[in-house]
Specification:
The complex is a heterotrimer of chains A (155), B (117) and C (260).
Chain A lengths: L1 H11 L8 H4 L6 H27 L6 H11 L2 H27 L22 H27 L3
Helix pairs in contact in A: 3-5, 5-6
Chain B lengths: L7 H27 L3 H4 L2 H8 L2 H29 L3 H30 L2
Helix pairs in contact in B: 1-4, 4-5
Chain C lengths: L1 H4 L2 E8 L9 E8 L6 H11 L19 E4 L2 E4 L5 H4 L3 E5 L6 E3 L2 E2 L2 H9 L20 E4 L2 H11 L6 H5 L11 H12 L7 H8 L13 H5 L6 H13 L10 E4 L4
Parallel strand pairs in C: 1-5
Antiparallel strand pairs in C: 1-2, 3-4, 3-5, 6-7, 8-9
Classes of the chains: A mainly alpha (155), B mainly alpha (117), C alpha+beta (260).
Chain lengths: 155, 117, 260
């Protein structure tokens, strides 16, 4: 009897899970959360680009006309902006990814010790934050360079 | 079959390794676009000439395999974290594996045909 | 001075009762506050003078028991450890902890959270020491230096308040993931020289919804009220599991009464 009533109670409880909203909002918990969010989104974006890129280069097999018409499609302002986004996201994903490989192997996080008030967690240190900022900065520089190359040639 | 199943720590190692290796491979791939004016490097003749260079073909195939593994495993991670049930998880694993093999096969087809052009 | 004494804030409290299928809503209360008033003080004021039916869970009032965790102005916090003056807001919103099943008002169900903790076998396991001791002369003690203790002490300060669990973005969508609390406890025993059951715990956490679902968003360490830094423990544990960082763990030597 007790179990049945417990089950009923459990069904009535709201699961309370934040669900996808839990990771869609990166603003509440500092830079590391922003990094987590961006690493995911850039990864997904790059996967879409990669599959698209494999598809677009396959036009090579259909001869010079097919290749040139595919090239025309990509050499529009929209195509250039998309490519600049690819340059930025791949730079961020790479630089931040390298940081994360070190971090997730326990490097650059500091050592455990006796915590003292006001409890500044050693894992959220400035080496880590600088890594995220450098990844963002390099992504911006790469996008600027990409923009200069793509738009500098007159589209 | 069960013995073929990789542990998550092994998959993570593969994820890191494919990520690092693809960084170097993609860097060389991009350099090939930048050693001459960008528009010229994408001309049909130049691209076909690239495909006749065996080292470049090996490089392209490596990028294809490395990024497919890294990217589709990333997608699998995101999807199995979103929803949990044995059915969903095995469906995701199978779909991701099929997509990965599909993309590798399709890209390899391009490489094989283009290198024979 | 008189301004400070007369200061009032509005407390918006999330109300619902899932056993009665009540629809959720917020009740607003005006509460007088002083510089030192905590959110728990304000909620107890509401219970005493405005609405005694507000459901909250609390015990020690000094951040030791971990009972009064709730979402305060959007962030998981301990009500007894959060001063209203530090929130710098005239409206204080109190909601139940995210990622926990809700029971009533601000009270949430911790059974799944505790079961993840239990799954980590959070106790010393050492196959060289017998658990059943009949003769007192068989009692043993482990020798540890201060440096040995420092390796895990930080993680043993965990009060199981669940704040890290509710801040974790993976837990938000994956209930099978043990969460930062349980995983940092796995590290706590992994780093403890008295414990030699590394393989058992590694097998528990090295699975599809195990430790590798942590991607170092660091939110657990941001909200931890005791400085445990779960993100640190989890990353160090990952490093050991990948074999990429050295684990200089020395199993403590045993001292028995006989060989003393």
């Amino acid at each position: 009897m007790g179990t049945v009533s417990n089950n009923k109670e459990n069904n009535n409880m709201n699961s309370g899970r934040e669900g996808i909203r839990g990771w869609l909002n990166p603003t509440r918990y500092g830079w590391e959360r922003v990094s987590y969010w961006l690493q995911r989104l850039t990864g997904l974006f790059l996967l879409v680009y990669f599959v698209g890129h494999v598809y677009e280069t396959s036009s090579l097999t259909n001869g010079v006309d097919a290749w040139n018409s595919m090239l025309e499609l990509t050499q529009t302002i929209g195509g250039h902006i998309f490519l600049i986004l690819v340059i930025g996201t791949s730079t961020f994903h790479t630089v931040n990814g390298i940081r994360l490989i070190f971090t997730e192997s326990g490097k650059g996080l500091g050592k455990p010790g006796r915590p003292d008030y006001p409890y500044n967690p050693s894992s959220l240190n400035y080496t880590q934050k600088s890594g995220i900022w450098i990844a963002l900065l390099l992504a911006c520089i790469a996008m600027l360079y990409g923009g200069m190359v793509l738009f500098g040639e007159g589209g | 079959m069960a013995s073929l199943r990789l542990r998550e720590s092994q998959i993570t190692k593969i994820h890191y390794l494919t990520g690092i290796l693809s960084l170097f491979a993609v860097a060389i791939h991009i350099l090939f676009r930048l050693i001459m004016p960008f528009g010229q490097s994408l001309s049909y003749e130049n691209v076909v000439a690239n495909y006749h260079n065996i080292f470049y073909v090996i490089l392209l195939e490596s990028i294809l395999v490395l990024i497919s593994i890294h990217g589709f495993n990333g997608l699998r991670i995101i999807l199995i974290e979103l929803k949990q049930s044995p059915k969903w998880e095995s469906t995701i694993t199978i779909l991701v594996l099929i997509s990965m093999i599909g993309v590798i096969a399709y890209g390899t087809r391009t490489i094989v045909i283009a290198s024979g052009l | 001075m008189s301004n400070e004494e007369n200061k009032k804030v509005q407390l918006k409290v999330y109300r619902t009762n899932y056993n009665k299928d009540d629809s959720s809503h917020y009740d607003k209360f005006e509460v007088p506050v002083k510089r030192w008033t905590t959110v728990l003080d304000a909620l107890l004021h509401v219970k005493s003078y405005s609405d005694s039916s507000v459901g909250i869970r609390y015990s020690c009032r000094m951040a030791s028991c971990g009972s009064c965790g709730m979402k305060i102005n959007g962030k998981p916090s301990l009500a007894c450890y959060t001063k209203i003056s530090e929130l710098k807001d005239d409206v204080i919103v109190c909601e139940p902890l995210p990622n926990f099943p809700r029971i009533r008002d601000l009270v949430s169900d911790f059974s799944q959270f505790f079961s993840h903790h239990k799954n980590m076998k959070p106790f010393i396991q050492n196959d060289k020491v017998s658990v059943d001791i009949d003769d007192k002369s068989d009692l043993v003690e482990f020798e540890q230096t201060h440096e040995d203790v420092d390796k895990y002490l930080q993680f043993s300060y965990c009060i199981r308040c669940g704040l890290c669990y509710s801040a974790c973005p993976t837990v938000a969508t994956d209930p099978k993931f043990p969460g930062p609390q349980a995983l940092s406890q796995a590290y706590r025993y992994e780093a403890d020289g008295r414990d030699n059951s590394k393989k058992t715990r590694f097998n528990i956490i090295d699975e599809r919804h195990g430790i590798w679902r942590c991607h170092f968003a660091g939110s657990c360490s941001v909200v931890c009220p005791k400085g445990v830094d779960p993100a640190l423990g989890i990353q160090l544990l990952k490093g050991h599991m990948l074999g990429l960082s050295k684990n200089n763990k020395k199993i403590s030597t045993l001292r028995t009464k006989n060989n003393e």
